[in-house]
Every structure is written in C-alpha cells, then in structure tokens.
Amino acid sequence: MAQSKSAIPQVVFVLGPPGSGKGTQCAKLVEEFKFTHLSAGELLRGEITKGSKDGALIQKLMDEGKIVPVDITCRLLYNSMQESSSNRFLIDGFPRNKDNVDGWERIVGDKADVKFCLFLDCPKEVCLSRIMSRHEGRTDDTPEKFKLRIDTYFKETVPIIEHFGTINKLRSIPSDRTIEHVYADVKTAIGSEFEIGKFEP
C-alpha cells in the first residue's frame, strides 16, 4: 500500500497573498529539493499561447472578465503532473476558494496525495510595500489596485486556509521576514512530510 501511495503525485499547495514571497520560496525548493513547481495562472496562460481549444475559451473568458471553470484548471494541473518525471509538486496559487477545493476533489481526488497547504502569512502593509517596490515606474499599477487585489485575496482565501487547518493540513509560516529566515521554516515544514536528503534528482 505504501508503495502505491508514493507512486501517485505528492502535492503541496502553496498559498499566500500577492507579495508574500510564494515564487521566491518555490524557486528555492525547486533548486534544492527538485520539486516541480506548477502555477495555475501560468498553465492557463500557456494554453492561450498554444492556441488549444481550451486556450480559446480561456482567452474569451478572461477578455470578458469571467472566471475560468475550475474543471479546466484542475485538468491542466493533473495533466502536467502526469507528464512530469517527478512525483513531488508545489502548486502555487491554488486553491483560492471553495469552488477550487471542490473542483480538485471532483477532478483529481485520490489520484494525488495532498500532503499539506503551505501558507505564507504576510501583513497587507508588507505585501503592498513589496509589490509597489517591484513595480516602480509602471503607471498602470497603483497602490489602490494592489490593495484591492490583496483585499480580494484575503476575502476569498482565508476560508480555505481555515479549511486546511481543520483537517490538520496547514503549515502557516510568517513571511514578513528575510528570505533566509522564511526559507528555514519552509524547509522544516517540508521535512515534516518528506525525507530531506532523499529527494530524487
């Protein structure tokens, strides 16, 4: 039984508001421990670039300001895991709401082993400061727009964080510190479910 369990994709969901450092921490884990990093947003944009049937629908929905059906997102994530030679995945920015969680259970379910949700907890003010410093000189980005994005994130995602907490699958790490301090705690969280030092190259 343990052998078949380890053969299916092992997943860590990585959540956190814009500016919390998700991309930075995921990149460090990929480099050191050979995780495969999947971003739901990048996969959706990739389908548009490829010009696939799903891509045309995704583009149409985005142009109309509508949400892409969760079934498409979950299918893209699962297909990417199936196509990878790795079986350890960081899924960045997903699930963001209850519809995402329900869709994952429906489409993927026990075909993947979700170890836990890694939540990079960062105060809104710190997130806003980081985002604005990264986007200096861009006239289309304003503090008001970023604040709205962050507020929307917290409104949608806090219930999901609480959901993972109730099923004992939440690892919350304060990310308003240096990259190195945050990463030390991230490594500890990863080590609680994966054997550090025994990662496949």
From TrEMBL:
Alphabetical UniProt keywords: ATP-binding, Cytoplasm, Kinase, Nucleotide-binding, Nucleus, Pyrimidine biosynthesis, Transferase
- Keyword Chaperone applies: no
- Give the catalytic activity: UMP + ATP = UDP + ADP
The protein's matches in Pfam families, at most eight in alphabetical order, are given as: ADK
A Gene Ontology molecular function term for this protein is:
ATP binding
SUPFAM superfamilies the UniProt entry points to: P-loop containing nucleoside triphosphate hydrolases
Q: May I ask which residue range the UniProt record assigns to the signal sequence?
A: none
Biological process terms in GO annotation: 'de novo' pyrimidine nucleobase biosynthetic process; nucleoside monophosphate metabolic process; pyrimidine nucleotide biosynthetic process
Instruction: Report the family membership.
Output: Belongs to the adenylate kinase family.
Q: What is this protein called?
A: UMP-CMP kinase family protein
* Organism, as annotated: Oopsacas minuta
Q: Mind giving the lineage of the organism this protein is from?
A: Eukaryota, Metazoa, Porifera, Hexactinellida, Hexasterophora
